[in-house]
Sequence to fold (225 residues):
Amino acid sequence: KAGVTQTPRYLIKTRGQQVTLSCSPISGHRSVSWYQQTPGQGLQFLFEYFSETQRNKGNFPGRFSGRQFSNSRSEMNVSTLELGDSALYLCASSLDRGTQETQYFGPGTRLLVL
Amino acid sequence: GENVEQHPSTLSVQEGDSAVIKCTYSDSASNYFPWYKQELGKGPQLIIDIRSNVGEKKDQRIAVTLNKTAKHFSLHITETQPEDSAVYFCAASKGFQKLVFGTGTRLLVSP
Fold:
């Protein structure tokens, strides 16, 4: 079974631009979570989607948004990019059968904001 | 909210030695504790997890222990090998697929 895939793997943007990252979960997984990883702040939860609905949200500004499609694929968008948004953005998927399930991570998208 | 502390930040061992990484969590409602291994250029990979109704779990050379009273959980790796070298993260969750991660431990296993 294929793992979690994320595209693109690398991105370079300039301040003020916006970016969209994509995540395809493991087949059959209905929950998709997004995390930001930086050397200074570590791994931080952004948000989680299930059945096309945002079910949980971390402490990030409104510039960070996401969505989930009917096939469980998810996208996250960051508008008005800032230098501090440079990070590895990780997507994780899980089965979600009503309890906390194992989350499987993708390889991440490395975003550099210049 | 939940806070997870992880120690040590770096750990160097000789091949064949054991390695222990410790985490503490703050929210007594947390009930799921996974450990992830992250290699350079890759996403975190689950190596073992434990739920709050279990005190210990073992998988070959890897074991995790949980002390709910003290809000501690630990990762034990025996007979370490050079390929165990990576960054290890503990995490805690009380549901809804939201993991709160520790700050990571860089493990270096020297041949």
User: Anything to note?
Assistant: DSSP finds no helices and eleven strands in chain A. The interface with chain B takes residues 4, 31, 33, 35, 42-45, 48, 50, 55-56, 58, 90, 92, 94, 96, 99-108 of chain A (CB under 8 Å).
